[in-house]
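Student: Please help interpret what follows.
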Amino acid sequence: MAQHAPRDALPPPQQPITPPVPPRQNARPRAVTSVAFSPDGRQLASGSDGGTLLLWDTATGQCTATLEGHWGTVTSVAFSPDGRQLASSCGSRGDDETLWLWDTATGQCTATLEVGS
């Protein structure tokens, strides 16, 4: 009859070695919450539940800019009539309750307007 070593004498079971997962490049938001086409149809803006806006080239389908600043869900996006500016809102209770104006050529925020009470 074979003898077995006591349980406390056995080495710990081998755990699989999992390499760390690098951050995703160009990570996309979890959920798109608003979209708008530019007046000329060449760009599409999308807002997300993570507070990020993305600008897309509609001809290539490529993301051309990531606009960050809101810390809540982007509830609305709209282009100016000439397409040079983009307005975004984040106005649900608990979110930042602001309107942001963006320059679509540079991706820079040009103004923020507080709308919460």
